[in-house]
Write a structure and sequence with these properties.
By secondary structure, the protein is an all-beta fold. It contains no helices and eleven strands.
């Protein structure tokens, strides 16, 4: 199983980023995929899940600003992040159950 995230970077408050995750090694279309984030010194925080039927679920802290989506043909999951805030700064991980990728850094700062 491999999860590879991309798309992180530095963005100003109010800006947008789109994270991507390429998955391999399992039947992607059958499973829930997710995103989580972590700030140094703090625990892993769940951000969003997307179910096999395309339904999304979101943490209250990102609801209305983030949108999760998936492309089963490409075995990819995405996280569109809008109206970013400094408190969104973290390493973002793509997740499949307890498995996660190497992470991609998102920094929101002016």
């Amino acid at each position: 199983v491999q999860l590879v995230e991309s798309g992180g970077g530095l963005v100003q408050p109010g800006g947008s980023l789109r994270l991507s995750c390429a998955a391999s090694g399992f039947i992607f279309s059958s499973y829930v995929m997710g995103w989580a984030r972590q700030v140094p010194g703090k625990g892993l925080e769940w951000v969003s899940n997307i179910y096999s039927d395309g339904r999304g679920a979101y943490a209250d802290s990102v609801k209305g600003r983030f949108t999760i989506s998936r492309d089963n043909a490409k075995k990819k999951v995405y996280l569109q992040m809008n109206s970013l805030k400094p408190e969104d700064t973290a390493v973002y991980y793509c997740t499949w159950g307890s498995v996660r990728g190497q992470g991609t850094q998102v920094t929101v700062s002016s």
